[in-house]
Write a structure and sequence with these properties.
409 residues, Growth Hormone, Chain: A, 16 helices, globular
Length: 409
């Protein structure tokens, strides 16, 4: 397979350029993963009679490959990043296609583990390639557009589910086969149709853990812990507490996607305009408020409309997390991007491996306390974000570090 530098890639037809590949992958991955997520809560309850503890264990198993994402560094010794990312995308698609073929606790956990390996290794490599292939000045806007493209692809898949699930009497098996098959097919196409793109800086293929990246690691850890509570329990609440059917859950996701399609590019521009610190402060204040109100749904018996509204706004605030990536891009040694992406993904999933199962037991006695825990995590994240300097660069990673050279205002 041909190797092409990023400079030479500018002379390729637009559809074969690196940025086009990033957008194609951004559209392909959510078709499988988001469809799996949309049907999951209904599928596991109907097929295997899951309760809150079971769903917690499922998500703990799903997060183990994320915790082991550091293994990407080993694979990069024998495989190019671009190839690894696309092979992982194919694995995600194939495993998603097979999901409904194993309607038992053991079967669901096994196939979830396989799809999760594909998802987490894809995400690790994709984050690294994006930061290597996109200029720092354009990164926030491009990341926002990539989020919007992924939301748009998922929106199309969800529209089809809403319109056809009851009308055509679709089964879980058929929907998983189709969505997973599309993702796998796109991955195979990208493997065959695109050359290997060579970034300007060779990436280190050994373990990298630097003291000066400590704030980035801390933000990643808290992001993973906080986000898991939302991913695992917010959707489950809509089914268990409010009795949402498949088409109703998917309809809620559709509204969320529409909001992300509109707001994600604006979020990218906002990060570029106001800086990573201000963007993250705004995110964590918003998320803390939302999680607190989630707890109130159980304490005070607030209704389904508020729950659905909070769900939509929660996703909008989460898109601001792209500021963590651009913060790292600004402070990183360019050769550290690939190995640090793997290390950061592992750090992001440390809490994710343990929280879902542990909080699943807490959910059985007090769902409100699960969301109160998330509120506390948002407050810790807020305090950490205040440590980001106004102009993060190598040598000026936190407000505690004296700048080596003040950037131009």
């Amino acid at each position: 397979m041909d190797t092409v530098t990023l400079t030479d890639a500018r002379r390729l037809p637009f559809w074969r350029r690196p940025v086009t590949l990033l957008f194609l992958m951004a559209a392909a991955m959510p078709i499988a993963f988001s469809t799996w997520s949309a049907l999951l809560n209904n599928f596991v309850i109907e097929a295997a009679d899951f309760d809150g503890s079971d769903i917690g264990w499922l998500h703990t198993v799903r997060e183990i490959p994320g915790f082991l994402a550091i293994g990407v560094i080993v694979l990069l010794m024998v495989m190019r990043e671009q190839v690894l990312g696309l092979v992982s995308l194919v694995l995600l698609g194939v495993a998603t296609a097979l999901t409904a073929q194993f309607p038992s606790m053991g079967g669901i956990l096994t196939i979830t583990m396989l799809s999760s390996i594909g998802y987490h290794y894809y995400e690790t490599v994709n984050q690294s390639l994006t930061l290597q292939w996109i200029d720092k000045d354009r990164a926030p806007q491009m990341l926002g557009l990539l989020i919007a493209v992924g939301s748009g692809a998922t929106f199309l898949a969800y529209v089809l589910i809403v319109l056809t699930w009851e009308a055509l009497g679709l089964s879980y098996s058929l929907v998983y086969w189709v969505s997973g098959g599309i993702t796998a097919a796109v991955g195979v196409f990208c493997l065959l149709a695109y050359p290997q793109f060579e970034g300007p800086t060779p990436q280190r293929t050994q373990f990298v853990l630097r003291r000066r990246y400590w704030l980035y690691y801390a933000l990643q850890f808290m992001s993973g812990a906080r986000r898991q509570i939302f991913i695992v329990f917010a959707g489950f609440m809509m089914v268990e507490k409010f009795g949402f059917a498949v088409h109703e859950v998917t309809g809620l996701f559709l509204i969320t996607l529409l909001a992300n399609i509109v707001t994600a590019p604006l979020v990218g521009k906002a990060v570029a305009r106001f800086g990573e610190r201000n963007a993250l402060v705004f995110e964590y204040v918003g998320l803390g408020t939302i999680f607190f109100l989630y707890g109130g749904l159980y304490y005070f018996g607030w209704g389904v409309v508020l729950a659905a509204t909070l769900y939509v706004f929660n996703n909008i605030f989460f898109s601001l997390a792209l500021a963590i990536k651009t913060y790292f891009q600004k402070i990183a040694d360019p050769a550290d991007i690939a190995p640090t992406a793997a290390v950061a993904f592992t750090i992001n999933h440390i809490a994710a491996v343990f929280l879902p199962a542990g909080l699943g037991y807490l959910w059985l006695t007090s769902p409100a306390m699960v969301f109160m825990a998330a509120t506390g995590m948002a407050v810790v994240s807020l305090l950490l974000s205040l440590l980001i300097p106004r102009h993060p660069v190598p040598g000026n990673e936190t407000i505690f570090v004296r700048r080596r050279a003040a950037p131009a205002e």
